[in-house]
Amino acid sequence: MRQENRVRTFHISTYGCQMNLADSSTLASTLTTRGYRRVADESDADLIILNTCSVREKAEDRVYGRLGEIYKFKKQKPHLKVAVVGCMAQRLGQDLVDRVPHVDYVLGTDRVFELPDVLEGREGTSAIMTAFGHENMDGIEPIKEKPWSGFITISRGCDNYCTYCIVPFVRGREREHSADYIVDAARKMADEGVVELTLLGQNVNSYKYEETDFPDLLRRVARESGIPRLRYMTSHPKDLSRKLVQVMAEEPKIMPHIHLPLQSGANRILNRMGRIYTIEHYLKIIDHIRAALPYVAITTDLIVGFPSETEEEYEATLAAVKQVGYDSAFMFRYSVRPGTTAARYADDVPEEDKIRRLNKLIALQQEISYERNQREIGEVRWGLVEGHSRRSKDRMRARTEGNKTVLFPAGDISPGSVVPIRITAADAFTLHGEIAEVH
Ligand code: SAH
Ligand code: SF4
Ligand code: F3S
Fold this sequence. Notes:
Elements: E1 9-14, H1 18-33, E2 37-38, E3 47-52, H2 57-76, E4 81-86, H3 87-92, H4 94-99, E5 105-107, H5 115-119, E6 128-129, E7 143-146, E8 149-153, E9 155-156, H6 167-171, E10 175-176, H7 179-191, E11 196-200, E12 208-209, E13 212-213, H8 214-224, E14 229-233, H9 242-250, E15 257-259, H10 267-273, H11 279-292, E16 297-304, H12 311-324, E17 328-333, H13 351-374, E18 380-388, E19 395-399, E20 405-409, E21 418-426, E22 431-435
Parallel strand pairs: 1-2, 1-3, 3-4, 4-5, 5-6, 8-11, 11-14, 15-16, 16-17, 20-22
Antiparallel strand pairs: 7-8, 9-10, 12-13, 18-19, 18-21, 19-20, 21-22
Helix pairs in contact: 7-8, 8-9, 9-11, 12-13
The structure holds S-adenosyl-L-homocysteine, iron/sulfur cluster (SF4) and FE3-S4 cluster.
Residues 16-17, 19-20, 53-55, 87, 166-167, 170-171 line the site of FE3-S4 cluster (F3S).
């Protein structure tokens, strides 16, 4: 390769979940260590990396849209390289290049971190790599995007095979880091000044490494790492144990927030989704959580328009949402993912019904979020300051224990500080407050 065409600078855009964010940060640090420079502006990059998501068709469409725009840059700058990595790369492999020929590299979820080797043409690498089983997890350093906040992926992959979901296909079998590795990594982050750490996995509750289960792991990180605030994502209701709730109640460093995807409020649909639990079991868990944790934010994921979902079954989801009273929710229209079990079912809920169901659900959840947030008024929450509000220089933004955004009048407070904030007002999406005096 001629010297002037060598890749020196790169830009990464990330789609999808926090796992992908964590992977992008790790990839950026791997590339930087190898002498490549990260640039904030795509137009300064010799290599554009898209770390992609396949969870819904829309997520993939966004990447195709982006690749269309990149095609224009590439015509002006022929030496520009384009790498598509992550879940969509894993799902499509060669098909992606057949469809979008100006993509230079396609690296699946297990091969992402080999990108520098691929760029340098190392033996055994090639431009398109999607085979599983190549990842050396212990070589992968956890990373922090902001100096005060860190993520550690405790397990990769998923063995649940919910019938609608592409993740097990694109992320592979579940595999875990050892508890010692995680505790050491957390300790290192604490030493470097990380204030809030999030442990990540598709289903953290099924974590098991030798004798350590997830509650044990959480307790060890809370007690041994020195990290002041600890979070985790995501819990599967079938595996959320009483022991976990007890550890949360006993360890003040674990933030009182549980993301517990319900998906549907109707048992027939839950069963067809392969979710294992019933709505009755789910509601029992919620009661138990609320009884054990005096202040807890509960959030969820919901899908409307799953194959064969009737109007009554959809109503059952609305009823469950009302009954639980979620602080917030991610809500989606069902999207067929090729290769999944549900892709064999007729996608028979008409698109206009899916849209109507989703809109009504969103409106309901917005009312509930508003009502839940009103309850915070008068309380003092400890906010981790993230910086200035995106809209106004006069306000600063912090994240509460329940993972809600709170805005307060700007003062001389550096990002990464944890400050007491009295909540004075709230809407459906944001809390508002002022710095409180704490005695
Ligand atoms: N591991 C996490 C979720 C990962 S995907 C868990 O099990 O909770 C995030 C969310 O996307 C899911 O909870 C689900 O609500 C939604 N989702 C997944 N596949 C989908 C599909 N085919 N159509 C619509 N939404 C989907
Ligand atoms: Fe997908 Fe289910 Fe695994 Fe979550 S638990 S990633 S929804 S298969
Ligand atoms: Fe995450 Fe999307 Fe992959 S949700 S695991 S980036 S398919």
